[in-house]
Amino acid sequence: MFVLFEEAGKYLGGRVLSEAEASAQVELETGKRVKVKGANIVLRFEKPSPADLIAEARSLAAALDLDLAWEFAPEGEFAFAELAAEYFSEKPSLAQQAAALFALFEAPHYFRRAGKGRFKKAPAEIVQQALAAIEKKKVIQAQIAEWAAQLAEGVCPAPVREQLYKILFRPDKNAPEYKAVVDAARATQRPPLDLLERAGAIDSPYQFHWRRFLFENFPKGTGFPALAAPAIVDDLPVASEVQAFSIDDSQTTEIDDALSVQGLGTGTVTVGIHIAAPALALTPGSAIDNVARARMSTVYMPGYKITMLPDDVVNTYTLLEGGDRPAVSLYARFDEATLELQGTETKLERVPIVANLRHDQLDTVVTQPWLEDASFQSDNTPEAAAKLRAPLSFLFRLAKQLKAQREVVRGKPENFNRPDYNFRLVGNEGEPTGSEQVQISTRQRGAPLDLIVSEAMILANSSWGGWLGELGVPGLYRSQASLAPGIKVRMGTRALPHAGLGVKSYAWSTSPLRRYTDLVNQWQIIAAARHGKTAALAAPFKPKDADLFSILSGFDAAYATYNAYQGGMERFWTLKYLQQQGITELEATVIKDLPNGALVRAETLPLVFPVAGQQERGARLRVKLGEIDEIALDVSGTVLERLDTPKADAALADESDEGDEEEVVAGPIAIAVDLSDSEAAAPENTPA
Predict the structure, then answer these.
(1) How far lies 560's CA from each of 299, 566, 661, 665, in Å?
(2) Cα–Cα nearest to 16, from 4, 6, 3
(3) Which of 54, 134, 307, 463 is the most exposed place for a label (fewest CB within 10 A)?
(4) 52 backbone dihedrals φ, ψ, rounded to 5°
(5) Residues 6+ apart with CB under 8 A from 654
């Protein structure tokens, strides 16, 4: 005897070997033996064979008119054999019964299952809705097929182009645009990103990186809502004896900090560190604060930036020369001869800003000899710099002393073995297109003006951080437990030592127009300046404030993302520079071993890339560059020759630049288009 039975949503046939009261042992055509519950058996027969019966029934079921079957079906619950009697004949054949069963089972939009082999008609309105959905699905499937064919032919349909970044990085796997890309990639056996690039979906490599960044971080665009900067209503005293000046590069519009020097020649010199004071006007939870908190920081990239605050707001509080500007000022008193710190004081005031110096215009003038020797003359010294020569000279002397003191705490000197690189896009105004001519210039780290500003800011951030800690006022701190390998700088709400800087605590507070952490800390510092020992009760953020922890984690994530994008764009423009200048060979130094190769750093450009073949760390090489991939930001090299001898390389390899961020090195772009899993699977990161 043969039986037809249901197993895991499928109908199978086989020969009965033995049968008990509630089950049967059945042998399938494959020879496999299965135990079948009696309730799952829907037909018993002697002939034909199960395979022949199923084949004939499938053929009949395919021709069955479901609309007509629905009309003929009995009202209420019924068995498949009853429908076969109504549809085929009063005494339907075995194959006709099985055909009715298959047709009913596979048409849930017409017939609902009511048990093993039993069904019930779906209401007429449900049938119509289901049929409309099926027809719609057919149309969508046809559209997917058409789009996939176009992509395979090298043409990108407009809907796919419009959804490009969503498809690649945050796809809806049920969307037809996504399915078209998957189908085309499978059909052509091309990686999805390569397929889309060849089809013209990507306007240019630069636009790909830029639009991807905006999609992931600024999905609503980079524009600001209409916001009016509130005026500072505090009756602030004017620091009339102060003549403050800022030191920034020419592209800086958010002038956060300025310096002043008083008392030269008196034995006690007071250095003022004056920080723009938007926190005197802005309040936590206000519209402008919400904008700043959403962005967390200004985003920098060669030739462009996305500011944390609207230009009008920045211009209201920036320390522009030619007037008295509201500021939070730290005054540090030093013995003029020994440079011993005698005390600090914080004031809320208006500070006269007499000059906005630009270090890119002054670096060749304000040099170490110019600062250390009053008789040294430099050609074409700007009048503003000449007037400030004495204060600048004292600040340079102080900066060297402060750095030396920090290095004692660190246990070793800071190394600035590599220059900073400046990028200039010739003729660029506004958002770059990626086709601009790029100029890359170098600026040695630790240049006098740099050192003056950086040491003053470290002094302010460490002084204010320690002061908040003493008063029990929480803030946002950066700390590093030690300089041991693997111990990284972390952010927290406690005043902990920063081993890398050699200070007892460090709270970012000197860039409130550019970093949200600094704006938050400025609110806390203002509370400390106004309320002293009771500041913890008056400060906007209280100890263990959950909102403060939320800001910390949000800033950490955003800042890392922005820095990574800046690094990626600097790499893009470096690769562009190689192409524009026709550079095919570079001199480079080995910095890290890789499997079957090494990582090298170019000696005259901000570029790290792999070379084939094992190389000794610290070795200097001449390298021939391979093909540049502007989408993957990738280039590799082949070693032409070694430029040094192996003798002292070990010592060279051990020298490192403390505190550097991790190198930006290209790799496969992780996209979320998955060609291997089913449509319902979760997204995977697929290297493009």
Answers:
(1) 11, 10, 10, 15
(2) 3
(3) 134
(4) -65, -40
(5) none
Mind giving me the DSSP string for 523-565? HHHHHHHHHGGGHHHHSSS-TT-HHHHHHHHHHHHHHHHHHHH
Predicted TM-score (pTM) of this structure:
0.79
- Enumerate residue ranges in the chain where pLDDT < 50: 648-662, 678-688
Is 100:94 a contact under the CB 8 Å cutoff? no
HEC sequence for 113-168: EEECCEEEECCHHHHHHHHHHHHHHHHHHHHHHHHHHHHHCCCCCHHHHHCHHHHH
Residue 45: closest CA among 97, 6, 103, 119: 97
Q: 365, exposed or middle or buried, with CB in 10 Å at 0-12, 13-18, 19+?
A: middle
pLDDT at 684: 36
Amino acid at 590: V
Length of the chain counted residue by residue: 688
What would the two tokens of residue 588 be? 């480079």
- Distances in Å between the Cα of 513 and the Cα atoms of 275, 547, 548, 565 are 10, 20, 19, 20
**Residue 37: C-alpha distances to residues 25, 214, 466 (Å):** 9, 59, 77
The two tokens of residue 493 are 């709400």
Beta strand pairing status for 23-28 and 33-37?
antiparallel
Give the Cα separation of 590 and 186 in Å (integer). 40
